[in-house]
Amino acid sequence: MINMKGLTHFTIPVTDLQRSKEFYVDTLGFKFERENRHMVFVSCEDDFFVLTESENPIDPNQGDKHEIHTAFYVDADEYDRAIDYLAEKGIRIIKKEERHGDASFTGRSLYFHDPDRNVLELHDSDKG
């Protein structure tokens, strides 16, 4: 076993770095950190992820399925505001759900696509 201490970053594949940078930074509000010729580094609080140019086709889910996704948590007020904000930006919510009881992550979730059809989740936890 390896004793991990946390997550350094994760990578989201994209086909157009500038379009994705605008979406994740300008539209969704993540903080731009730096970029190079094939990667854009962004953060949210102390968490980082990298938008990385992919030469492979990106379509992790067929249609509006959402099983393969990246989740970000938000406060309840921000979750409610995000529903209207996404609609104003022309971003279609592909699914909304609430999980309670013995689910691993409980509360409200909504799912939508980024410009490359990667699925993103906004999660409002009911665990305070």
The structural domain count equals 2
Question: Count of DSSP E strands?
Answer: 8
Shape: globular
- What pattern of helices and strands is seen along the backbone? EHEEEEHEEE
Which architecture of the largest domain per CATH? Roll
- Beta-strand level of the residues, as a percent range? 35-45%
How many DSSP helices?
Answer: 2
Largest sheet: 4 strands, mixed
Query: Any idea of the CATH topology of the largest domain?
Result: 2,3-Dihydroxybiphenyl 1,2-Dioxygenase, domain 1
Structural class: alpha/beta
Protein architecture, described:
By secondary structure, the chain is α/β, with parallel strands linked by helices. The chain folds into two domains: 8-56, 2,3-Dihydroxybiphenyl 1,2-Dioxygenase, domain 1; 59-128, Roll (2,3-Dihydroxybiphenyl 1,2-Dioxygenase, domain 1). Helix content is 19%, strand content 38%. It is built from two helices and eight strands. It has a four-stranded mixed beta sheet with strand order 1-4-3-2, with helices on one face. A four-stranded mixed beta sheet has the order 5-8-7-6, covered by helices on one side. It is globular.
Main attributes?
128 residues; alpha/beta; 2,3-Dihydroxybiphenyl 1,2-Dioxygenase, domain 1; four-stranded mixed sheet; 38% strand; globular
